[in-house]
């Protein structure tokens, strides 16, 4: 059975009619597809600026749901966790996953058909096999100097 998305208060396909900076907080949060990729630790090449995703996940990522286990108070545990906003998206889009709705819309691209706002199901991101569900490694299990051994190629 699919997991229906609560669209109460959201107008149909709002992301196609409103610029990112004009979205309500509810609309902004609804853009998250629940893939969990933003919670993967990344490695950035200092010379080229290229960013690589790793299978090493933030300690707060729930590997089964692909959601932050402490989203509302995450900064108490992970002070460096970035709160993505329309105002700071331009400086953070480069490290966001290529399938991320925030990055796609920032770059003028459409959402994928598996995005929960289009499919109507939170499960669709997992069914499309674009989430990190079930294959991450918690960061406390891997020393940072070994993260390179866990680089993944996107899309996953």
Structural features, described:
Helices cover 21% and strands 13% of the residues. With 156 residues, it is of the alpha+beta class. The chain has one domain (14-152). Strands 1, 2, 5 and 6 form a 4-stranded mixed sheet that branches. A two-stranded antiparallel ribbon has the order 3-4. The longest helix has 6 residues, at 25-30. The protein is globular and about 45 Å long. The model has no long low-confidence stretch (mean pLDDT 91).
Task: Identify the notable features of this structure and list them briefly.
alpha+beta; two-stranded antiparallel sheet; globular
What is shown here, in short?
With 156 residues, the protein is an alpha+beta fold. The protein has helices at 14-17, 25-30, 74-77, 89-92, 101-106, 116-119, 124-127, and strands at 40-44, 51-57, 61-62, 67-68, 137-138, 151-152. It is globular.
Strand content: 5-15%
Order of helices and strands: HHEEEEHHHHHEE
Number of strands: 6
The unreliable regions are none
Number of domains: 1
Ends: how far apart? 24 Å
Q: Which outline best applies? A: globular
Structural class by secondary-structure content: alpha+beta
Give me the Rg, rounded.
16 Å
SSE diagram, text form:
Blueprint: H1 14-17, H2 25-30, E1 40-44, E2 51-57, E3 61-62, E4 67-68, H3 74-77, H4 89-92, H5 101-106, H6 116-119, H7 124-127, E5 137-138, E6 151-152
Parallel strand pairs: 2-5
Antiparallel strand pairs: 1-2, 2-6, 3-4
């Amino acid at each position: 059975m699919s997991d229906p998305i609560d669209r109460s208060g959201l107008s149909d396909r709002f992301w196609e009619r409103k610029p990112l900076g004009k979205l309500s907080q509810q609309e902004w949060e609804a853009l998250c597809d629940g893939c969990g990729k933003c919670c993967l630790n990344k490695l950035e090449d200092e010379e080229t600026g290229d960013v690589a995703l790793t299978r090493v996940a933030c300690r707060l990522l729930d590997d089964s749901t692909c959601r932050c286990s402490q989203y509302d108070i995450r900064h108490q545990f992970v002070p460096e966790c970035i709160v993505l906003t329309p105002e700071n998206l331009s400086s953070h889009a480069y490290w966001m996953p290529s399938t991320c709705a925030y990055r796609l819309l920032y770059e003028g691209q459409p959402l994928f058909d598996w995005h929960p706002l289009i499919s109507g199901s939170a499960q669709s991101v997992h069914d499309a096999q674009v989430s990190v569900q079930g294959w991450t490694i918690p960061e406390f299990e891997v020393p940072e100097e070994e993260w390179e051994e866990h680089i993944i190629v996107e899309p996953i």
